[in-house]
Amino acid sequence: INGQPGDLYNCSAKETVVVPINSGETSLLRVINAALNQPLFFAVANHKLTVVGADASYLKPFTTNVLMLGPGQTTDVLLTADQPPKRYYIAARAYQSAQNAPFDNTTTTAILQYNKTTTTSPPIVPVLPAFNDTNTVTSFSRKFKSLRNVVVPKTIDDNLFFTIGLGLDNCPKNFPKSRCQGLNGTRFTASMNNVSFVLPSNFSLLQAHSNGIPGVFTTDFPATPPVKFDYTGNNISRALFQPVKGTKVYKLKYGSRVQVVLQDTNIVTSENHPIHLHGYDFYIVAQGFGNFNPKKDTSKFNLVDPPLRNTVAVPVNGWAVIRFVADNPGVWLMHCHLDVHIKWGLAMAFLVDNGVGELETLKAPPHDLPVC
Q1: Which residue ranges does the record assign to the Plastocyanin-like domain (predicted)?
Q2: Statement to judge: residues 118 and 180 lie in one domain
Q3: The domain that contains 352 carries what CATH number?
Q4: Same domain, yes or no, for 124 and 163?
Q5: Which long-range contacts (CB under 8 A, 24 or more apart) does 104-109 make?
């Protein structure tokens, strides 16, 4: 927390962050999950947290004992110092949804310290959910609503369905076993719609697009999965475990109204994936478990006051639906905010065309921009 693991770790016991507060005072806490690979539960012992915003957008306030944030997500909360003047742990620990995957099951701490409190008294410990408590995550995420009614795209121009998840690659013959730690000596990979994204090595996507440089990317990212299957089932064909590799983008016209269904898969294992979109905020109109069913699940859409965010936590073995208007021209990456997953290829990019006039046009990068 703020650069220190906390006093449950010997290495930082003396440098644990202390947050002073006066009795009766209300403070705004901006909580950011800056971890690379781990969603986190967050709580302050004996104190209620009133959520008022997330990802820089206001929300209808609601009170909770615990937050859950995926990597890169932010949550703004109000905390009132209404407890006896003592010392209280501020604590965070992992939420781990992937079955049998190793993770750091320790707890990081800071201390909320009421002024005029002796520093010798041990801090009060909060109750944090179990590491695999998906019910708490679901209950928390369902409380998110925009502060006021909002204008959500009702007519959809680009209706997209993206599967997201892991996979396995065959180990290259020249690789040592230490670099192939997947099942049966394979290498872990990840993909969207069976395409494992390869970051370009010489030019940025925007440079290649603006300057007409060939061979950097293609515009054939699939709008739907190439193969339909029981995405969250337990008997997925091994033929689906190895995705194709490519630097593929999906083209959008300026002003296009976009809906994306993000469907988790149980290839290798299912997991809660924090999916982040560069260049845009979007409305999360629905989330659920199992395979998304357009005939039934559209009735669950909140088109009145859905939350506006830039990162959506797609539920483990479930789905999320987002909507936005493509009014920011350029090339924008959509990827899993678990750092290891983007390295494995869990990403794609939208290429949004220019509109009409200077205000709807992105200028090309300068020709002397240094290459990657």
Answers
A1: 1-116, 220-354
A2: no
A3: 2.60.40.420
A4: no
A5: 104/38, 105/131, 106/5, 106/8, 106/9, 107/6, 107/8, 108/1, 108/4, 108/5, 108/6, 108/8, 108/9, 109/1, 109/5, 109/6, 109/7, 109/8, 109/16
Asked if residue 94 lies in contact with residue 43, where contact means CB atoms within 8 angstroms, the answer is no
Query: Which of 141, 171, 195 corresponds to the end of one domain?
Result: 141
Q: How far is CA 203 from CA 122, 324, 339, in A?
A: 55, 28, 22
CA 263, CA 183: separation in Å to the nearest integer? 23
| pLDDT value, residue 372 | 61
Q: Are residues 290 and 354 in the same domain?
A: yes
* Structural domain ending residue among the three candidates 95, 110, 141: 141
What percent of the chain clears pLDDT 70, i.e. is strictly above it?
A: 99
Sign of CA dihedral 168, 346, 308, 128: positive
Q: Are 23 and 167 contained in the same domain?
A: no
Q: How many domains does the chain have?
A: 2
pTM for the whole thing? 0.95
Reading the block at residue 164, the tokens are 């997201």
C-alpha–C-alpha distance, residues 44 and 18, integer Å: 13
Q: Same domain for 122 and 226? A: no
Give the residue-averaged pLDDT of 89-102.
Answer: 93
How does pLDDT run across 160-188, given as a tens digit for each residue?
A: 999 999 999 998 888 888 888 888 889 99
pLDDT at 10: 85
- 200 with 61, same domain? no
- What 8-state DSSP symbol labels residue 85? S
Host domain of residue 119:
10-141
Q: What is the pLDDT of residues 286-315, one digit of tens each?
A: 999 999 999 999 999 999 999 999 999 999
| The pLDDT value given to residue 371 | 67
Per-residue model confidence as pLDDT tens digits over 133-161: 999 999 999 999 999 999 999 999 999 99
pLDDT band at residue 366 under the 50/70/90 scheme? confident
Burial class (CB in 10 A: 0-12, 13-18, 19+), 178: exposed
Decide if pLDDT at 119 tops 80.
no
Residue 291 shares a structural domain with residue 213: yes
DSSP, residue by residue, 142-181: TT--BSS------S-SEEEEEEEEEEEEPPPTTS-GGG--
